[in-house]
Amino acid sequence: MRVLIAPDKFAGTLTAVQAAEAIAQGWRRRAPDDELDLCPMADGGPGFVDVIHSALGGELQALTVPGPGHTSVPAAIARSGQSAYIESAQACGLHLLGDTDPEQATTYGVGAMIGAAIKAGARRVVVGLGGSGTNDGGAGLLAALGATSDVELTGGAAGLAGITHLDLAPARRTVEGIELVVASDVDNPLTGLFGATKTFGPQKGIAEERLPAVDGLLEEFAAVAGRRTALDKGAGAAGGLGFALLLLGATRVPGIDVVATAVDLRDRAERADLVVTGEGAFDFSSRSGKVPYGVAAVAAESLRPCVALAGQVLVGSREMRTMGVEAAYSIVDQVGRERAFAEPAAGLAELAERVARNWST
């Protein structure tokens, strides 16, 4: 039997590469003669660059950029031909916040990565958005590329108070002739009830009582930078990084589509008899452009069954089938919550061995 193993990361425990290897290890224990095709996946969030580099090869350009609290952090750009792939979480990820006030966190480092990619000769820059700890509307990114204002653009959302002027011309000259692509599954606008602050602010540490005020700061920014663009789908991605990139002429595509193309997912699915995907928590949000939903859609197009392995499964059989998944299996159910978090790779391998017993023929 030919099995395509295409999981996302298991957030906080396993990278996509580690997850694919754990699934393969367990599967081989039960079905050693099956032909396994390991295809680690990502959307635009953490792990995006590693998966792209693994798929396309090319060069990894290492650099150091300012993090969300201005402290230097390491980053890497995956380069293939004239295309460069950037993972915004490497410069402004939630995991980098530390003691930094999320209202003061900056996206300057993401702009620095884009600038470095352009200086190195890239003519197409794909920026993966996801996992950010920032909420500055992308003001820091714009500053790194040359934009100026009558306020401090690198001071996070708090620094935008009282803004009345923004000159984007220098930043637009920096990216002139460059194809900018936003890789993100988020379609929220910048502000409002479904905007960046109200939807994602709490998970970044913005206090509930501060949400209206912070949203108001982004409203001020949008009034000066481009209110129409603030309403575009994806403007609210990564705390408004989507907004800044759209202002510079970027186009938005689902991150899963970028990765699916890079790894040749459709052809690999057509060559398989079964597709196996997975992520940390398989729940209702999985339908919002996340890896399992995208992989299941490709499997359906290829008329191949798809099953999911996850840390936890939080949807019923009817809901999972609407996502194109035949069955979903939980590590917690297999080995217990304590061991699932203490030994995630071993737990996932055990689960894969059980699933192979059900599906390998």
UniProtKB/TrEMBL annotation:
Is Kinase one of the keywords UniProt gives this record? Answer: yes
What keywords does the record list, in alphabetical order? Answer: Kinase, Transferase
Tell me the GO molecular function terms. glycerate kinase activity
Share an example GO biological-process annotation for this protein. organic acid phosphorylation
Its Enzyme Commission number? 2.7.1.31
Q: Which InterPro entries match?
A: Glyc_kinase_flavodox-like_fold, Glycerate_kinase, Glycerate_kinase_RE-like, Glycerate_kinase_sf
Q: Which family does it belong to?
A: Belongs to the glycerate kinase type-1 family.
- Record-given protein name: Glycerate kinase
| Species whose genome carries this gene | Nocardioides daedukensis
